[in-house]
Design a protein that fits this description.
Elements lengths: L1 H28 L5 H30 L6 H6 L6 H6 L5 H22 L5 H24 L24 H30 L4 H32 L10 H26 L3 H23 L13 H25 L14 H31 L8 H21 L10 H25 L5 H18 L12 H26 L1 E8 L3 E4 L2 E12 L4 E11 L5 E3 L2 E6 L2 E6 L1 E5 L2 E10 L4 E10 L3 H34 L1
């Protein structure tokens, strides 16, 4: 009865969403005191969050028990899988991932209802109503098109198993972090819709929205970083980003969230960019909905695309049209009522943030067009492929300009500044970039234009990111200033890793017999043996490589070709040796009748900086979030004591 209990909880949660929408609408429409309606809305939102959490807990339970009478378990799990992958199987599929989505959505709505105390009652009621409206569409999708609790009669003896490429610790945690990010953007969207409905757009609305935008951005950063590293070591292709449409589906919300984060900060602290902030909130959630459609519509073939049913894709497309079309219509009809915020000069921190947002929007537009245009062409029976060359040439120049704006922004004063003062503050970062470029041209003239520019700009950004800390009492510097500096430093570190990987990677591919040595970069690798081995739910052919760096000490690498029986699949497991200055990456290919084995080796200098930078970005965001929340708490406490 576990599955039936989960389904019942899901139906009750959907009923609570309907009730929440109705009560919230009454509160937002109230001409007098809306407090009574708001209290009722808060209670219903909390109950809804609890009910859908119960439904998801029931799904986890049937997966942990390997209950093959549930269709979803039979199709995505196996009794012999390790427990981690049994649990991960709950969201490593279409229906389970959508239930996770709506669970996080409802729990987030309950958190808004419980914690938010800054907004006017009508504005908060409208926000909770918008959140309920979003949830209703996904409840309908689950209950009528993608029921995760469907029974299977008679049940099979065992399940088909989880996709072996998803049987990895990184992929167990990658989807939930992305969903937390997507849902954080849904909360920001609901705040924007609520503020538009009751015409209450101002700093208070932005301060209420900002923690959710920042939290969403942090989780998106973690999710994208984890997904990039998973693709790098699990797929065996030696790359960290392939401009796959599904990769782009997670990148686009991150770009929009980055722009929204800067914009909402201006509105919260300086009462500027009111209409722009509202528009970015709609765009950011639109990107998460487009990503959801791409992954679950069946129009994409990808390792991490879930659905192959066009009818489900049509359902999501209708939801996308309703939510985004409705929000854009609301924005168009109400933006005229949004009062102009505080003005500022072009040469100011606000001006730099506007430039930052525009450049991010250009990159977002390029990625969106490059992702969707081939799909539209395919619908018209025209086969068209847009790959990395297009994206790299179109986005890298804009990204380098964005680096300059990122350096300049924190060095400018609010409201008004002047070019001469900015030039003086930019001198040290610019000098750092020039010195780096000259050294690279002398030492590595064959690296290529973009890698040299990337490393040079990264050097300037690294220095510039730390300059806002100069002259401050570091012990008393607010956490959000530290967070900004560390996040910008993380961007510089990631760019350095990307550029180094692009300019300095060395690769060798050869078919060699056992006992022969293959050299790549400063390493030599001897193929000592290839032998069978067995893991917890797979068998494999494992190579033993005896590796030396120059005349240094020998160490072993053991790349594998794995074979899974449930489902029947073979995968390549790369072996990596991480050193302070990069990674040696080894992949074992197929054997031949004459005793030779395909062996592929890469030496990737400083490639690990890509993910170290992603970690720094997320850590900086977390510091900023903690600092902002602590500051608001102290402010409210002080106001309470004064009253």
């Amino acid at each position: 009865m576990i599955a039936e209990a989960g389904l019942a909880a899901l139906w009750l949660a959907a009923a609570m969403a309907i009730l929440q929408l109705g009560v919230a609408w009454a509160g937002a429409s109230a001409s007098s005191d809306a407090s009574l309606y708001l209290r009722a809305t808060r209670g219903v939102a909390l109950v809804q969050g609890v009910l859908v959490a119960i439904a998801f807990a029931m799904l986890l339970w049937v997966f942990a028990r390997s209950d093959m009478s549930v269709l979803l378990v039979a199709e995505n799990s196996h009794s012999m899988k390790p427990m981690l992958y049994k649990i991960a199987g709950a969201w490593g599929n279409h229906e389970g991932s959508m239930l996770l989505w709506v669970t996080v959505l409802a729990v987030a709505g309950g958190a808004v209802a419980f914690f938010e105390r800054q907004l006017q009652p009508r504005t908060l009621a409208a926000t909770l109503g918008a959140q309920a409206a979003i949830g209703l569409g996904f409840y309908a999708f689950l209950l009528f098109a993608s029921n995760p609790f469907t029974r299977l009669d008679p049940p099979p003896l065992d399940g088909q198993g989880l996709n072996p490429l998803l049987q990895d610790p990184g992929l167990a945690f990658h989807p939930p972090t992305l969903y937390f990010g997507y849902v954080g953007l849904s909360v920001a969207f609901s705040f924007a819709v609520g503020a538009l409905l009751v015409r209450d757009v101002g700093p208070a609305f932005a301060r209420a929205m900002r923690p959710w935008v920042l939290a969403a951005w942090i989780f998106l950063t973690i999710g994208i970083t984890a997904g990039s590293y998973w693709a790098y070591y699990e797929l065996g292709w030696g790359g960290w980003w392939f401009w796959d449409p599904v990769e782009n589906a997670s990148l686009m919300p991150w770009l929009a969230a980055t722009a929204l984060l800067h914009s909402v900060t201006v509105l919260a602290t300086r009462d500027g960019l009111r209409a722009w902030t509202l528009m970015l909130a709609v765009v950011a959630f639109s990107m998460s909905m487009i990503g959801t459609f791409l992954v679950r519509s069946g129009i994409l073939t990808s390792v991490h695309a879930f659905a192959v049913d066009p009818l489900r894709g049509s359902f999501i497309l209708v939801l996308l049209a309703l939510y985004i079309g409705g929000a854009l219509l609301l924005f168009a009809t109400r933006v005229g009522t949004v009062k102009q915020g505080a003005t500022f000069e072009l040469v100011s921190r606000e001006g730099a943030l506007v430039v930052n947002n525009l450049l991010l929007s250009v990159i977002l537009g390029v990625v969106l067009i490059g992702t969707l245009y081939p799909l539209l062409a395919q619908a018209m029976d025209v086969q068209l492929s847009i790959g990395p060359p297009f994206f790299n040439k179109a986005t890298v120049p804009v990204a380098l300009a964005l680096v300059v704006a990122t350096v300049a922004g924190p060095l400018l004063r609010w409201r008004r500044d002047n070019w001469r003062a900015l030039g003086g503050r930019m001198a040290i970062p610019l000098l750092s970039a020039v010195v780096a470029a000259v050294l690279l041209l002398i030492l590595t003239p064959d690296a290529g234009l973009y890698p040299i520019l990337g490393i040079s700009f990264a050097a300037g950004l690294a220095v510039g990111s730390l300059m806002p800390l100069i002259g401050r009492n570091l012990r008393r510097t607010p956490l959000h200033i530290w967070g900004m500096a560390i996040a910008h430093l993380g961007v510089a570190v990631s760019i350095l890793g990307m550029a180094a990987d692009s300019g300095f990677t060395r690769e060798r591919l050869a078919a060699i017999p056992i006992g022969e040595t293959l050299e790549v970069g400063p390493f030599s690798a001897k193929l000592a043996d290839v032998a069978p081995t067995i893991g917890p739910n797979w068998s494999a052919l494992e190579a033993r490589l005896e590796v030396r760096r120059g005349d240094g000490r020998m160490f072993l690498l053991r790349p594998q070709q794995r074979f899974f029986s449930n489902p029947v699949t073979s995968t390549s497991e790369a072996a990596l040796a991480t050193r302070w200055d990069g990674q040696l990456y080894a992949v074992l290919g197929n054997g031949s009748d004459n005793g030779r084995w395909q062996l592929r080796l890469w030496w990737k200098p400083f490639v690990t900086l890509i993910w170290a930078g992603g970690g720094l970005i997320a850590f900086g965001g977390a510091l900023s979030l903690i600092g902002r929340l602590w500051r608001e708490r102290r402010k409210r406490k002080g106001e309470g004591e004064a009253a």
